[in-house]
Amino acid sequence: MDALAANLAAVRERIAAAATAAGRAPDAVTLIAVTKYARDEWVRGLLDLGVRDLGENRPQQLTERAETFTAQPPVRWHQIGQLQRNKVQKLLPAAFLTHSVDSETLLARIERVAAEEGLVPAVLLQANVSGEDSKSGFTPDALRALWDAGLDRFPHVRVRGLMTMAPAAAPDAVEAVARPVFAGLRTLRDELGGAEALPMLSMGMSGDFEPAIAEGATHVRLGSVLYAGLAEG
Question: What Gene3D superfamilies is this protein classified in (predicted)?
């Protein structure tokens, strides 16, 4: 696990450097280690190295791994992939934060299940800032309409912020392609109530997390950059 430790240390250094360059505190950015393709021994290695925020794309794998991997302090499991309405009931007790609430229909389903189960889950609303047909999420106009209608219709859900994904881009095009999307999410957040009302911005993955931090990301979702070189070991 020496390679994993080295990768994690390098990523933390890059996060700190990006935050400092943006005039932000490094500890204002939460690293979520995405474990979708991670071997169990890599997950254990991350826990041994002090990582406590882990992200899964599939609800079933999240709930299974939440039962398997325990640690002190406890693991904070993040649902970062698309969530189907029929998976909500099983997911909610295990998820610390659901990043991918991409429609009012899903938000209403979470509200119903949370009320029935006596839960108040924390969620982020996924915004399709880039306008790509391949990406799910609220359009900016749909989010504005949701805000205008009022979130008091969902008293059992804590909307903590927004999430987005930028288009894939070659390394030399990330600034031009991804950064405007991240800036757009921050601008939308500011329009809807600012950091006081929506303190979390989940944006930035392995190929574009530094410009995301420059634009105000509070949570970055990193997978491949943590596991580079491990498959051969």
Answer: Alanine racemase
- Would 21 be classed as within a structural domain? no
Tell me the CATH number at 162.
Answer: 3.20.20.10
Q: How far apart are CA 41 and CA 132, in angstroms?
A: 36
Residue 180 tokens read as: 């405007």
pLDDT score for 71:
78
Range of the domain at 131: 56-218
**CB count in 10 Å sphere of residue 177:** 16
Tell me the C-alpha distance between 184 and 202, whole Å: 13
Let me know: does 186 contact 204? Beta carbons within 8 Å.
no
Q: What backbone phi and psi angles, to 5 degrees, belong to 68?
A: -85, -45
The number of distinct structural domains making up the chain is 1
* 134's tokens: 């391949």
Residue 154 lies in a domain: yes
- Find tokens 């204002």 and name the residue: 28
Residue 211 in tokens: 């410009």
- As a whole number, mean pLDDT of residues 208-214 equals 98
Q: Specify the pLDDT at position 42.
A: 95
Taking residues 134-141, report their average pLDDT: 92
Q: Does 82 fall in a domain?
A: yes
Q: Give the three-state DSSP class for 34.
A: strand
Decide if 108 is inside a domain. yes
Contacts of 29 (CB under 8 A, 6+ apart): 15, 18, 19, 213, 217, 218, 219, 220
pTM listed for this prediction: 0.96
